[in-house]
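Researcher: Go.
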Amino acid sequence: MAETALIIGAGPAGLTAALEFQKLSEIKPVVLEASHEIGGISRTIRYKGNRMDIGGHRFFSKSDRVMEWWLEQMPTEAGADNAAAISYQNQSRSIAGMGDSSDKTAEEDDLVMLIRPRKSRIYFLRRFFDYPITLTKDTLEKLGLARTAKVGISYMASRIAQIKPEKSLEDFLINRFGRQLYLTFFKSYTEKVWGTPCEEISAEWGAQRIKGLSLTTAVKHFFKKAFTKKESKDLSQKGTDTSLIERFLYPKFGPGQLWEHVADKIVSGGGDIHMGWKVDRVVTAGQRILSVEAINDAGETQAFPADHFFSTMPMRDLVNAMERGGTAIPQNVKEVSEGLIYRDFITIGLLIDKLSVTEPDGGLLKDTWIYIQEPDVLVGRLQIFNNWSPYLVEPGKIWIGLEYFCYETDPLWTMPDDDLKKFGAMELEKIGILKADGVLDAHVVRVPKTYPAYFGTYDRFEELRAFTDSFENLFLVGRNGMHKYNNQDHSMLTAMQAVENVIGGVTSKKNLWKINTEMEYHEEKGDEQEIPDAEEDSMRSKVL
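Model: Structure:
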């Protein structure tokens, strides 16, 4: 009888694992998804002909393997002027046994990737500043002489005397930008996101998300752009920090379109995806998982036995399900699990005819994201969906997303939808972005446990990790599955690596935990590389 892999969660990590099992083995994937939507936090929300991307998902990775994987599912539209994308695309099609690159435009075919320009800015003092911040003439003029002098002095001081050891995120940011720049452009936004003072957040968050970024790298990037005569068309952007990339792939109808397509491929390939089934119990025997018991909306329960188990559900929920299934949870593990903290997320879509702020030529702002640094409003970030893909928006309208970070226990989370819509519109009017009476329609989406936090009991995380890793056929993958603030591509890489571990008979999880948001890869095309030891590294891509 064929082996089965039970995968908890139909987000990027779970669906990647399922498709990889089908591509590389005879192991049948069975996916359980608690909701009725595909894609997890990478799903696309549909509302009256408009679409919302929760948090924004740039399809860009330093991993060639991930880029090839995406383009194997969805090719770039015809006429896309990007040699790197075509190279990735042709390589993925060669692997899959497909033909040449797409000859369909986005107008002719829905299943295509667009190549989009990236522009993000900071909104502070009711003005726009470059993101990442650079000390250009424009920035200095907007800051004013006194504030600029403080920024310069504090930055030089940080270069001379680094804070060691870096214990907090505040230490991490001051070391790279100086205290004054940290207070001006980082502290307010970061504390909006986490609801916790920066001095109480682990420095590991910075290492996870912005390891390679500093004021020096941002300034170097600015001058490199300024003195380069021709804009680079290289989508790979291998020499550029991820925070500074300028072009990215994007599915025509948002990230959910790609994951819905992947789900269809899994089902057509013989895999199972069960929607609306929430894991209630995980049954173990010794150091193996035997089965998962799930419950559906009608209250029916079903047991799903399998040979291999992948989990993308929050680690706290997983441990609780194991305890309900009869597993003896050590007291210290229980303490760490219960002490993990998750930050929740609300996005409010507003449909409007125009914004109060424009580009110098009077046109729509070109930003994908705008970071709201203003301390007198709660909104943390603003998306302009038109700039992610024009196909997300009703023709002739502007569709924006207001992003709020909170806890499920906060008044903001429980505020009625109609009140939230008015609240969001009034906040944007307050800081001069739009007129509240110009809002034509609005939609609210709440997303629990969006951001695994690096405080609470996180300083004891290794105790929890050692416990879950001890179950030889249990593999934790993805953002919430590993309580690790991964981007979409690195969540996918954890799934790819875990599949390879299963196929190779590797029960150690060390190589999964090495996959980090800002890691670099030895993936030079055409290179003949020795396959590294699967205990420590990927069989496809060696990690530095």
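Model: The chain has three domains: 4-37+259-339+455-543, 128-222, 342-452.
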